Amino acid sequence: MKQTGDLQYMQQAIALAREGVGLVSPNPTVGCVLVKDGRVIGRGFHIYDHRDHAEIVALKEAGSEAEGATAYVTLEPCSHTGRTGPCADALVHAKLARVVAATVDPNPQVAGQGLAKLTKAGIAVTVGVLQQEARRLNDAFAKWIVTGSPYVVLKAALSVDGYLAPPPATRHTQEPHWLTGPSARAHVQQIRHAADAILTGVGTVLADNPQLTDRSGLPRRRPLLRVVLDSHLRLPLTSKLVESAQDDLLILCGETAPVQHEDKLREHGADVVRLPAQHNHVDLTTVMRCLAERQITSVLCEGGSRLNASLLTSGAVDALALFYAEAELGAGSVPFAEGGPSPYVLEQKLSGLAKTEFGSDTLVTGYLRDPWA
């Protein structure tokens, strides 16, 4: 049963959990607040390299005061032994009076067992306070831990009439065409920071010569993995991606791609993996499996028209992040998804649709598939 103050303290726990974005994958993002007699006595959030889970950090801060307190935690306390012992056991040992969890843990090894341990020990349990807000922080973990496949977000910057870029004949190669303004582009860096990997196709690299880096300035546990789908290994050694490769560039090519160019790419610090191809293109299902095996829980796709269409028709995409600028590009411009659905058709299929203004640009986000379902 919800009590006075539950929303307030869970909001604090969610704010703490956000401190772990970029620092916890492949573990979930979790925050915990301990409260006793209307006073916060312990706070904690999880960082992968520090091992201690959020509950343990908060318990250490509270010390002996934890007895009789209430714990507000954004994710069900774990009940199994992994790199650390079960948090549910630690909360029982500390003799807490109550635990408020925003959501049940999607991990099949937990999935209600942590809450059951607490209840069996006589601790009052409340579940579901600010559940949706807490779940959004762990969409990637939920998808990966249950399905073994990464959570995929397709991001695109579009004109108000739904095009990616002006007609190719009007553009200079290897120069990006900016549709959105500085505020929207700064937010893209925040989105990149929350992702484990960023995915594009070689066509986009040849056209725009992007860096595809996380320029948010925020700390992260491991570099943003830059992934290029390049079936025939056409990626130039002079591209910004190759020139800046520091164990953060993965090129996925077909089995018949030229070996000589593969060797040169490796000499420049890129990792090259050969995968099965279908219709002269690397198989996307295999791509996602390859990334998941590297403990990549979330993938941000920033590709061109053809890759967007392939991702959407293959069913790989979980969510969309579409930035609309005020400019119109007109007929003959590069479509959002060549031969695939328009962005406006896709918007009608989104759940949890939200719109956010960034200056004169509008970001539309939503889910094609609920990663927690």
Q: Can you describe what's shown?
A:
- By secondary structure, the chain is an alpha/beta fold.
- 29% of the residues lie in helices and 24% in strands.
- It contains 13 helices and 18 strands.
- It has helices at 6-18, 54-62, 87-93, 113-120, 131-136, 139-147, 182-193, 202-208, 240-243, 259-267, 284-293, 305-314, 343-347; strands spanning 31-36, 39-45, 70-73, 98-101, 124-127, 151-158, 163-165, 197-201, 225-229, 249-254, 271-275, 277-278, 281-282, 298-301, 319-324, 334-335, 351-358, 361-367.
- Helix 9 (240-243) links the parallel strand 9 (225-229) and strand 10 (249-254).
- Helix 3 (87-93) runs parallel beside helix 4 (113-120).
- The protein starts with 5 loop residues before the first helix and ends in a 6-residue tail after the last strand.
- The model has no long low-confidence stretch (mean pLDDT 94).
For this entry, give a set of tags.
373 residues; alpha/beta; nine-stranded mixed β-sheet; five-stranded mixed β-sheet
Distance between the termini: 24 Å
Helical residue percent?
25-40%
Q: What order do the strands of the largest sheet run in, or round the barrel if closed?
A: 11-10-9-8-14-6-15-18-17
What integer value in Å does the Rg equal? 23 Å
Q: What structural category arises from helix and sheet content?
A: alpha/beta
Number of separate helices? 13
Q: Tell me, what's the shape?
A: elongated
**Chain-averaged pLDDT:** 94
Which consecutive residue ranges, at least 5 long each, have pLDDT under 50?
none
